[in-house]
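Supplementary notes for students who missed Thursday's class. We covered one full example, reproduced here. Read the sequence, then the structure, then the short commentary at the end.
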Amino acid sequence: IVSHPADSLLSKINKAGAGGTGSMFQRLGNIAAETGIVKLCTQGLFARCIMIGTLTAGQFGVFDIVMGMVGAKKFHFHDPKAAH
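Structure (token representation):
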């Protein structure tokens, strides 16, 4: 979520002619001014959250399957009150 505005700017600046002419920083400033800070921070954020959420869930799913296949134990919690 924190990097979303910067990623949005990067996507926009890579399009031909985006931000007009000038240095990269001037073009980034032009794009940010044209788009607006609120729109830059919120446009596409829901889709990004869905994408990242499903990717993360998928990684945990693969982890769980692989750990089960190799017979490894995931958690090694011990009762601290139990005798050693």
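Commentary. The radius of gyration is 22 Å. Residues 45-70 form the longest helix (26 residues). If anything here is unclear, bring it to office hours.
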